[in-house]
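Q&A FORM
Asked by: J.P.
Topic: structure of OmpA family protein

PROVIDED:
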Amino acid sequence: MKLLRLLAGVAISVVLFASCNSAKKSSQDTASGRKKDPVAADAALKIGIMLDKLATDLVSATTGKADIFRTGEGINITFQPDFYFESSSEQLTPDAKNLLDQISGVLNRYPYTELFIEGHADSSGNQLKNKKLSENRAKSVALYLKGKGVLAERLAIAGYGATRPLASNETPEGRRKNRRVLVKIRANEKKFLASRIQVASK
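REPLIED BY: S.T.
REPLY: Here is the structure written out as tokens.
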């Protein structure tokens, strides 16, 4: 338990460090030497703060069992099939369901975000089957999250098979990394900013 807390603490530190660098960069002048529009800059800052808090909450909820990375566009969560799915199947494992319960609870507190769920495979075996399996695994994650209250309008899926590898398929470790489900979380800027206006007007 102490080790998991330490890992979560390290991950949060990394997230916060990346956030600080992102905020610093956004505050600088554009390449043309002109400062950004102050309204747009303020909106970007508010969205960045929201995503930073979401990333921190996700790290705490997953306790090191999922790879969470804060990007310039949002947050990426990588799920490895060895943990999340039964062998050669789109069926979620009990451990995966427990973790997705925690993730969905966090996501429901941040309704102004959208999720694009990608399934990926390695290059071994029949590629048509691999592509279908990758799509079905993405669909399984989406359906489970939907069942836990994440609105369907926030969810989109795609199965890419082996077309977008992270590592070489020549080694077992590379193939393991390529078999994954990637959840990309992005802010719905229009809805988020509209909600902020409504709160400010009350």
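FOLLOW-UP: Residues 1-20, 22-34 have pLDDT under 50 and may be disordered.
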